[in-house]
Amino acid sequence: MSQLTELWTNRKDFRITQIVNDSLPTAGEGEVLVAIDKFGLTANNVSYALSGDSIGYWNYYPTPLKAAQDHWGKVPVWACANVIASECDGIAVGERLWGFFPMASHTVLKPGNIEAEQFIDVTEYRKKLPSLYNTLRRTQAEPEVMQQYENERCLLVPLFGTSFVLYDYLLMNNLFDAKQILIGSVSSKTGFGLAKMLHDDPAVTAKIVGITSAGNRNFVNDLGCCDQLVIYGEEDQIDRSLASAYIDMSGNIDLTTTLHNSLGVNMVESAMVGASHWEAGGKMDRLPGARPTFFFAPGHIAKRDEEWGAGATMLKGMQHSLKVAAELKDLINIEWVNGPQQLQTIWGELLDNNVAASRGLMVSLLDVYTIND
User: Fold this and answer.
1) Phi first, then psi: what are they for 371, rounded to 5°?
2) What CA–CA distance (Å, rounded) separates 297 from 85?
């Protein structure tokens, strides 16, 4: 492919997008040019856009200054790519990479801290950003079993990685002495990943309560990860007498308010994680029970890495994630989205929460792409 194709999103109105075509960039000294042949698209990408200014997700692959001033940004995705040009010693043409990329056909990276299985993008403007998202995995140096799950890695592993960090956060805090764990939007991949890890842990005796829409009821039941499934609007079925920890994957302020007002002081933990229902967000009044707080996964990872050693948290998360992904992959229907026009359409459906939980969206903006089902 001799052309760069990108999808830019308006940071003030996520439904406004534009397809940008340009000549291919060149790799400068110490840099590599990569072709991104597949990336996963989930509600997590909506969360990246929603918190792009507050957390800095727009800053990983910024648009040119004039476009940025006009509120255009590039939503990051988890993707696989091939090195097609290299001016960097130690990184050869033909290397296969996995990591945090833009919605694009190509991009330029500047490898540093090069190790056998990974390197850090040390582009100057990225140095102030969390290293978690600056780390690119060199997949050909990894165990072969990991290379067999590329699609699941793009779609599920980053989200299940967050599931693991949440799982570890709850365990580290002894579940906040909760007798039930409430998971909002449990049909989201991060949500059912967390539910699965908790449900399958024999040491966790708390009841796992998933909250979802009626349309996702059968899918979540098939996952077998909840002790109780509650449909939106039927929150009165939740046992108000039990100390409860709430993990909010939906970003739905009305749901959070309902649960807090219902449980009162028995809401012993309330962590905001995702934004699958992003348009139901907004400012929250002071609520009874534990104060809702935003859960920042990189912060917990950094804390754990101080105890376990650098990279240990992500390694543990990868191991847990691949296990869960392998167990559940047959319940996810891989669906390919080819080209920027199709991406624009499916992005709108994702924003409207019209993508069924069982759909696994894999995208390629390359003219020539490889499908590995």
Assistant:
1) -105, 120
2) 33
**What pLDDT, on the 0 to 100 scale, is given for residue 369?**
45
Give the pair of three-digit tokens for residue 53.
């200014």
Q: Is 31 helix (H, G, I), strand (E, B) or coil?
A: coil
Query: What residue type is 365 in one-letter code?
Result: L
Distance, in Å, from the CA atom of 313 to the CA atom of 175, rounded to the nearest integer, reads 19
**How many residues in total does the chain contain?**
373
**Phi, psi (degrees; rounded to nearest 5) at 51:** -105, 20
Where does the pLDDT of residue 274 fall: very low under 50, low under 70, confident under 90, or very high at 90 and above?
low
Alpha-carbon dihedral of residues 113, 7, 340, 146, nearest 10 degrees? 20
Exposure class string for 126-153: b at 16+ Cβ within 10 A, else e: beebbbbbbbbbbbeebeeebeebbbbb
- On whether the CB atoms of residues 89 and 73 are closer than 8 A, the answer is no
Nearest to 48 by CA among 98, 72, 6, 14: 14
Neighbours of 168 (CB within 10 A): 18
- Residue 289 and residue 264 in contact, taking contact as beta carbons nearer than 8 Å: yes
For residue range 35-56, list pLDDT tens digits in order. 999 999 988 898 889 878 878 8
Buried b (16+ CB within 10 A) or exposed e, 59-96: bbbebeeeeeeeebbbbbbbbbbbbbbbebeebeeebb
Domains and CATH numbers, the chain: 3-156+332-364 (3.90.180.10), 158-299 (3.40.50.720)
Residue for token pair 């200054």: 65
How far is the C-alpha of 78 from the C-alpha of 92, rounded, in Å? 21
> What integer pLDDT is reported at residue 55 of this predicted model?
80
